[in-house]
Amino acid sequence: MRLAAALILLIAFIGHAHAADRWNVELIEKPEVPAEIVAQPMEPAPSGIADMLTAVGPKEGGIIRAWYSQPTSRYRHGILGDRIEGGALVVERADGRQFTYRLDEIEVFEDLYPRIADLDGDGRSEVITIRSSLISGASITVFGLNGDTLVLKATTPFIGSSFRWLNIAGIGYFTGAPLPEIAFVATPHIGGRLALVRLDRNRLVTIAAAPGFSNHVIGSTELRLSAMADFNGDGLMDLALPSDNRKQLRIMSFVNGRIVEFANASLPSPIDKAIAVTGEGNDAALTVGLENGEVYKVSR
């Protein structure tokens, strides 16, 4: 009996030692906070599709702009507020030349803007998209220029069922590897699963995954319910994003193939706006806007 009690105490101690820190939550008076919390810096897409924006990348990366074009209503999911999606991806080089990738008739770009990043370290940018199948749901799909042709370089599997979506949470150096990783939440409205993937030649390889997250509100055009920073001062990017009910802000690190929660904060209403971050390490603070109209500062 004494041995069993000792084991229980040891387990409790270990659990307590590894428990996530509870960060402070402070109500901010509304006049101090802009209405949208985080301004959207991107310009409208040249295609003229409502709510779609143009991504901008570094000039030295080859691809300097990217956007979705060829509006289509062939996928009737409407997760982003309407049923008009992109049927093609357009990229532009620094010399002004544009290149287009057109999807098959059973696919769409279920997204508002691509992301541009050099995922393989060759000095040339790739374009990261959310590509959905009318039959099998969403995927992360990476495109790049091969000479004068825009090609599909790698993709995650489709989720597996129509009307199942995912949202990208961030692209950065989360694990200390020499190449950046893509963090995303699969099915953010139904028990969302946070995953981290990395481009390995022509594959997107999953490094870590864990359930219990969301980073989107059904019908919203706001995709930025997440923020990246080095919150724990270890020199690597961490990720702050809502829990699956969006009433808790969870701050996550990626350690040895695991997703580790090292801090969290409970809020009185679900998060529904872009998350702002200032500072890093012990000085890090986040600003979150809620469905009830209140705005809070979250910090140590």
- Uncertain stretches: 1-17
Question: How many helix segments?
Answer: 1
Overall shape: globular
Percentage of residues in helical conformation = under 10%
Q: Main sheet?
A: 5 strands, mixed
The helix-and-strand class reads mainly beta
Average pLDDT metric: 93
**Which strands sit side by side, in order, in the main sheet?**
1-19-18-17-16
Polypeptide structure, described:
With 300 residues, the protein is mainly beta. 5% of the residues lie in helices and 45% in strands. A 5-stranded mixed β-sheet has the order 1-19-18-17-16, with no helix packed on it. Strands 7, 8, 9, 10 and 11 form a 5-stranded antiparallel β-sheet that branches. It has a 4-stranded antiparallel β-sheet with strand order 2-22-21-20, with no helix packed on it. Strand 3 and strand 4 (63-72) form a beta hairpin. It has one helix at residues 2-17, and strands spanning 21-22, 24-28, 55-56, 63-72, 85-93, 98-102, 107-109, 115-117, 126-133, 137-146, 149-155, 166-172, 181-186, 192-200, 203-213, 227-229, 238-242, 248-255, 258-266, 276-278, 285-289, 295-299. The two termini are 40 Å apart. It is globular, with a radius of gyration of 20 Å.
Task: Please write out the topology.
Blueprint: H1 2-17, E1 21-22, E2 24-28, E3 55-56, E4 63-72, E5 85-93, E6 98-102, E7 107-109, E8 115-117, E9 126-133, E10 137-146, E11 149-155, E12 166-172, E13 181-186, E14 192-200, E15 203-213, E16 227-229, E17 238-242, E18 248-255, E19 258-266, E20 276-278, E21 285-289, E22 295-299
Parallel strand pairs: 1-19
Antiparallel strand pairs: 2-22, 3-4, 4-5, 5-6, 7-9, 8-9, 9-10, 10-11, 12-13, 13-14, 14-15, 16-17, 17-18, 18-19, 20-21, 21-22
